[in-house]
Amino acid sequence: MRFVIARYPFDLTKAEVEAAMKGKKPETVTGESVIISRRTYPVKQVGEVITRQDRRDFTAGEVTRALSRLGFTCRSVTAPVPAPALSPLETASALLGAPAQD
Fold first, then answer.
1. What digits encode the pLDDT tens for the residues 33-73?
2. Which of 3, 17, 21, 52 is least surrounded by Cβ atoms within 10 Å, i.e. has the fewest?
3. 3-class DSSP state for residue 42?
4. DSSP string covering 3-41, please?
5. How far apart are the first and last CA of the chain?
6. Angle at the Cα of 48 (from 46 to 50), degrees rounded to 5?
7. What is the pLDDT of residue 101?
């Protein structure tokens, strides 16, 4: 399938991407990620390997779109959901302990 990443066209198949990433140790995922052969890789690492370009030359979105079209599972980073704020009464109750339930 033909993709344009960082203004350069690439003809990639799922098997070629899997072969290129075989034996590569996944880096720590801090942003968007993709699952290739049961391993989770950062999208930028995969993009660097398959395009042979510097990571600063392309965006994670470009690589994510290409890998999604090839059938890979891509995940984006979601912000952690903050815990709901407790009311003063709930805070005091939690500090004192809940009554025993029979």
1. 999 999 999 999 999 999 999 999 999 999 999 999 999 99
2. 52
3. strand
4. EEETTEEEE--HHHHHHHHTTPPPPPPSS-EEEETTEEE
5. 65
6. 65
7. 55
